[in-house]
Amino acid sequence: MLNIVLFGPPGAGKGTQSAKLIESYQLVHISTGDLFRKHLGEGTELGKLAKSYMDAGNLVPDDVVIGMVEDKIKEHQEDKGFIFDGFPRTVNQAEALDSMLGKYDLSISGMIALDVPTEELKKRIKERAKVSGRVDDQDDAKIDNRLRVYEQETKPVAGYYQESGKHKEVNGVGSVDDIFKQITDIIATY
Ligand code: AMP
Q1: Which residue's C-alpha comes closest to atom 9 of ligand 1?
Q2: Residues lining ligand 1, CB < 6 A?
């Protein structure tokens, strides 16, 4: 199985590249942000719980996120593999992911980080705000908070994968196809 963590700050292009990857490699896309937005839209208990964290640009508690991901892994363990997008976002989540996959004799093939300068991220999120309808894309304070949360809580996850030699970085500025090529070149080495 090909199990990839696509990593990067908000606005780095994880969603765009995931869409291309699932098509090329027939992988199951696990985007925790998309899953939460689906719950929000359907008005489930999980959605209600996640809403205040999401609206403010803070992380939803680990146990909630991890439980949601575990259900998805269970559902799709016979598939060709997973793209994890927006997960793991804390070292605790990364450890939980390893142990959840381990239960099914699976593991992460590699983590690919999209590198994009902060000013470019802000520009992209504001552009996306025009069409996304996302509350957390709408104002500078929320965007700044999400970038701060990324720096403080999520960036250490890169170190976690570096320790096991699974961390690779690509330049996330350029054409969608050029970035995709860099990613597929890395996948070819797995
Ligand atoms: P995203 O679409 O990945 O930018 O996620 C939108 C929001 O959903 C985040 O700002 C968090 O509030 C929440 N969220 C998504 N994934 C996670 C995660 N792995 N851990 C905690 N919160 C998450």
Answers
A1: 54
A2: 10, 32-33, 36, 53-54, 57-60, 65, 86-87, 89, 93, 136, 146
